[in-house]
Amino acid sequence: MAPKKRQRASPAASASAGTPETLTLKATSTSTDSLRESLTEMWRSEILCDVEITINGRSFRAHRVILAAESPYLNALVTNTTMKERSGPIELKEIAANTFASALEFMYAHETTLASQDELQPLLHAASLLRVPSLEAAVEAAIAQRLDPSSALHAFGLAEHLSLPVLAAAAKEIVLAHFEAAMAVEGSVLATLSAEKLGKLIEADALVVSDEWVVFEAIKRWLVQTPAPPAEVVHRLLGHVRFPRLAKHRQVQLETDELAMQYTALIAKAYREELHGEDTPRTRARYRPGMALEFDELRVGMQVRVMDDLALVKAGCEVPAPGAEEETGWDDDMANSIGKEFVIKVIDSNDMSAFLATEDKFGMNRDYCFPFTVLTTVRPPVT
């Protein structure tokens, strides 16, 4: 009987027959955590520690491989051939002993407990020096969560110095919302800010101040603490002051102010822009969340909020606004706009009002017109 014919293998199978199959096995997070816990326990018990760091007479024993893996800065020290061959400990001078103890614990356990929040800033500097991103991120987040007007300006300067975007954004938002309180407590910190960073603060529409004089005084304070800044820098900073928005008695003071008299052309330009009705950073009102708007502050494309009192808004629409020829009128569908934000589409000077982009929003079937008296500001996004 003829032998059976063997079934031919598929081309793919033939091609791979002579090549051993490879596969990758990965440890679960539990296994990884277990390894880290074991290494941390060995470190605490000083088992197989092969390197010693000393700071101001205090000794820290550790595993060379852990330090090298966690910190590029320490990697350069513990893997240096000369250092390895030399007997004795490695001395660190840039970090306090208590701060390094916390950093070292974090490098092993990925967590550490601090006695108080006063230890956060030194630890942040240590994390930056040692170049331990996970520690730096943890400290940055902890500081950001604890910010208030008494610490935000300092934190903003620190974030600039260490290039920490999360902390910078959180600190900036608080400084803008509480600028005068921050200045009262931490005004001396202004000297630590670059002209660019100070400019980013005082140019913001979201900056909340009782009067533009506060901004002008902040610049003067920065100038006192900054040795001989170039004239163009001063000019650029003063360009962020909205001089036409100064209170009347401050405008009188401006006439004899020494700094103002050196930049009369700049100030005159701001007033000229205001006189001609130009919409520029120097003429625009800063946004105060929830503050009532004046008619001349309305701009097409501006985001506004309809007041959240239905009776008040309805009454405001049923009577002529100050300076208006007639009332805007009321439609029951407009009740759906109460407390909500919209963009201004058209401004009507006859009714001292604005048509808002309400069509197809919150159940409204067209764009409705509201008098300026029922519109309030919306805090712009902090950028």
Describe it.
Residues 49-116 form the BTB domain. InterPro entries: BACK, BTB/POZ_dom, SKP1/BTB/POZ_sf. Residues 19-30 have a biased composition (Polar residues). Residues 1-30 are annotated as: Disordered. This protein has 383 residues and is an alpha+beta fold. The chain has 3 domains: 36-146, Potassium Channel Kv1.1, Chain A (2-Layer Sandwich); 194-286, no CATH class; 295-377, SH3 type barrels (Roll). Helices cover 45% and strands 9% of the residues. It is built from 18 helices and 8 strands. A hairpin with a 4-residue loop joins strand 5 and strand 6. Helix 7 runs antiparallel to helix 8 (133-145) and helix 9 (152-162) packs antiparallel against helix 10. The longest helix has 16 residues, at 29-44. The termini are far apart.
